[in-house]
């Protein structure tokens, strides 16, 4: 086959996204991916046959209003065959007052049950873990699957970073797109804000002068912003039972970065290897995401306080790993 024909066939190859779990997060993620045109085929897998078939039918009946796509679903893992990206959302549901780490045992057991079958039917896929507690589940999934760290990672603090940017944008009176700031560490209570590298419209956040009438960004205000970000999921769960819209959109952006080979920098959760001396734990840090998965953790400059916070977050997650023999 000549090179031109090979390239043409490669360029025309359609993409397939498999979403494991048709609950609130999985079905919302599938809807977001469909509406955005993220993949040519969207496959839903769930043990509840009636539920997954109903979700698929509902999505299919909106195909007239979306970019060209195919939506399929089943309770049989074969529906995920040859997927380019597999997103795992299945897991125990977080209840009001329950921390993400409280969910660990049941979710790890479920991951061990479903992941080998997924890898068998989609051996070349990039795997994105969304199920909480995502850092511990991602670490367990790497052990269970045997996949390289590049091809299996967690959604991490992509959502938390969006929450941070939204709150900062509101306080500063600027568009969200003008705020560049990351949450790092655990996707949970020990997560940290990387204030020292944050910028607003190119201005270092720590040097930002508020517009007239806007709130200051002093240390007390930054702490309040951070607390609002950490507590937001608990507020949503208390009010409506689950978070689904924002995480669906966040996961869809990660999927697009992979499928479109974007080389995007995103704070996903991956296995660290001597990052500021931190190893053998999955944490979120700004990382390069492309068709290969997570290819590199960006060496972001950290203040002494941020480095201490990141190390404390690592110890918090590592303690949970040890509790479950990981």
UniProtKB/TrEMBL annotation:
| Annotated Lactate/malate dehydrogenase C-terminal domain residues | 157-319
Keywords, ordered alphabetically: Allosteric enzyme, Cytoplasm, NAD, Oxidoreductase, Phosphoprotein
At what positions is Phosphotyrosine found?
234
Domain annotation Lactate/malate dehydrogenase N-terminal: ranges? 15-154
Fetch the Pfam families from UniProt.
Ldh_1_C, Ldh_1_N
Describe activation and inhibition of this protein.
Allosterically activated by fructose 1,6-bisphosphate (FBP).
Q: What is its EC number?
A: 1.1.1.27
Gene Ontology, cellular component aspect: cytoplasm
The cross-references to InterPro entries, in alphabetical order and at most eight, read: L-lactate/malate_DH, L-lactate_DH, L-lactate_DH_AS, Lactate/malate_DH_C, Lactate/malate_DH_N, Lactate_DH/Glyco_Ohase_4_C, NAD(P)-bd_dom_sf
Q: Where does beta-D-fructose 1,6-bisphosphate bind?
A: 165, 180
Record's subunit section: Homotetramer.
User: Would you tell me the protein name for this molecule?
Assistant: L-lactate dehydrogenase
Give the encoding gene's name. ldh
